[in-house]
Specification:
With 233 residues, the protein is mainly beta. The protein has one domain: Jelly Rolls, CATH 2.60.120. Helix content is 6%, strand content 39%. The strands form two sheets. Strands 1, 2, 3, 4, 6, 9 and 12 form a seven-stranded antiparallel β-sheet that branches. The chain has a five-stranded antiparallel β-sheet with strand order 5-11-7-8-10. Strand 1 and strand 2 form a beta hairpin. The radius of gyration is 17 Å and the shape is globular.
Length: 233
């Protein structure tokens, strides 16, 4: 598995680390659920959402709706929308205690240099082993979903080509859920478990493709909007 370098885009990030002052919206959900959404509408970026280049911009009028995070010059084998490494936010921490049940995001591909083919979205959850500046000792779990990455399409204020993704995450389970796999658990964190991971999630990512496969490297223009996390206290 190849992970991107740690990047904290200074101009892009406006992160509130205290739960009470986080710049997301919240709405009541059935069965006592509550969803927290970073819409970027106020120029904030809770969690430091990024494509890992540091070239991202908050762009108005092409989001889903309104403002979104846009990267016009991504070179990658598989675009990866993620929280920034080392940034604490509502998207990280003790998911089990908070009762996390679901995460989601909206993604758009405005342009791709070559054919992407059909690629699944992989969800990646990592623990940084209490060393946020050291990428080599991170470990975690992944889910290769059945939902496909967005194909290139026009994204404007009048014609949006966005795809919406939702993934169940049973944070209070005691074993690795069906369909999930481990990332470096046995070599980096011996005896690492789903309980340990859900007690301290450091990084969340949505990858264009199967994490176990390799893809050609080429250019993209991509955007993300409305990263969200649903809890059932």
């Amino acid at each position: 598995m190849h992970l991107p370098r740690r990047i904290l885009p200074g101009a892009l990030l406006s992160v509130s680390l205290l739960f009470a002052f986080a710049p997301w919206s919240a709405r009541a959900e059935p069965a006592g659920e509550q969803t927290f959404v970073e819409s970027f509408e106020q120029g904030t970026n809770e969690g430091g959402w990024t494509f890992g280049t540091g070239n991202e911009l908050l762009v108005a009028d092409i989001g889903d709706p309104g403002v979104c995070v846009f990267d016009a010059s991504l070179i990658s084998y598989a675009p990866r929308a993620s929280t920034s490494f080392g940034v604490s936010s509502v998207f990280t921490g003790d998911w089990a205690a908070r009762g996390v049940v679901r995460i989601g995001i909206d993604l758009a591909t405005l342009w791709a240099e070559a054919s992407m083919g059909e690629r699944p979205i992989t969800v990646i959850l990592l623990n940084d082993n209490n060393t946020p500046d050291d990428l080599e000792d991170d470990w975690g779990a992944y889910l290769v979903s059945t939902q496909l990455a967005p194909q290139p399409g026009e994204v404007t204020a009048s014609a949006a080509s966005w795809s919406t993704y939702e993934f169940d995450v049973p944070a209070r389970e005691h074993q690795l859920p069906p369909g999930w796999g481990w990332i470096a658990r046995d070599t980096i964190r011996p005896h690492g478990s789903w309980v340990r991971l859900m007690g301290d999630v450091s990084h969340v990512a949505f990858m264009y493709g199967d994490i176990t496969k390799l893809y050609l490297v080429f250019g993209y223009q991509v955007a993300l909007d409305n990263p969200r996390i649903t809890v059932r206290p």
